[in-house]
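Support request, please re-run this one:
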Amino acid sequence: MRQFLDYDDEYITDKICDLVVETKYEDLPPYVVNFAKRHILDTIGVIIGGSTMENIPSIVDFVREQGGQKESTIPLFGGKVPASMCAFALGPAARATDLGDCHEEAGHSAEYTLPALLAATGLKPGFSGKQFLLSFVLGQEILIRTGKAYNCVSCEQNSGSQGGHYIFGPVIAVGKLLGLSTTQLKGALGMAKCMTQPYDMSMYTPANFMVSLHHGFIAQDAINICLLARKNIIEQYTQVFSGNRGFYSLFSRPENEIDFYELTNNIGIKWEMTGTTLKPYPSCNCTHTSIKGILEQMETHHFTYHDINAIHLDESQINWTIVAQPYEVKWNPRSIPECQFSLPYTVAAAAYTGDFFLDAYAEEKRSNIEIWKLMKKISVRQDMDLPPYAARITTTLENGTIHTGEYFMVKGHPEEPFTDEELCNKFKRCSLYSVNKLEDTTINEVIEKIFSLEKIDDMVKEIILPLTS
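Re-run finished. Output below.
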């Protein structure tokens, strides 16, 4: 039987809870506040773009059908529902486009945290922009740190182990927004640990709407957990992170290979949440360097999809595992999620269009004969020497010319961030897909307010309602 050392779980939990309860907005460095505002803008834009994606209107209908206390306005769609059900509606919309964020070790984050926070603003009037920003930063920080501690992406996902750390982020964020005490927050983290699922990562196999729906369940659970914690139902909890029953006992590696130091080292001083990539393309992050590569080659060397004879992709292990296998699925995607997780589809669609955005998933694109012909010209090989997410692209043209390049990161990566203008353009581009028509003046006003979020007195009145029909 595996034995797990204590690793002073009480110290870890106390350290996290003390940070969350004691940190004030004024304690946040300006660069963290700036990153948070940009991240919030990006994710709200992604929710807007996701509002018309397949199944999202049906999820909102389901939420409305449940009735209940009228607490929170559903952004874009309108109508008031219980806060937890509002979170359930927003979570899938945040992930449906797969255009949000991705941390290289902790995976997706704000697509869990922000839907819960937006929904929680209906629980009492007058949440300010400063309160919202602070809650978002703390939730993101804990989510990222819990994911990094066990190398969720580079180790666990490739080895077949399952994730589950996502819920800690929205619980921390909502708990901070609601003003939970240290004791209440400990109880909330204990409940969150009990709600983590050992099969979270199986939502990716097979690729279907569960990838998006998962975000709704997590955001909904986070609000319910914090509301229960506020009633002091569970005041103490042991073995939240370490120990035989702690969160990290879920995984295949022995606990002495979990980096518990990552959870608390320089917490409140070094802000890991700023290491998140804001995605440029609406697809799995594992496709991004290849999309960038083919588009860059086409622009640099002035060729179109008509000129392509063959495309060979050498991919890092995680790219190969997630978006290139199994062959019979990745080269024959039918649904939108299957296309989002298909390396040959995304590369072929990008080459065909000379761009890659949400229209790539329209029915006419998914069934386009020219894209399917291009997919047949694409071959993929795993290259264990390439770092995570990297790709090498060799494109052979009909005239025999060969173009080769290696691609390690994309625009939006912390080392190559979007400019404010580029981020605003992405937001505006997403707004074209809104379930309710948004006027240019409304879009510009919302963008301006998010960039000055610390001056907002009421998040609902100044951000949510202007976006809502």
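The radius of gyration is 22 Å. Residues 30-50 form the longest helix (21 residues).
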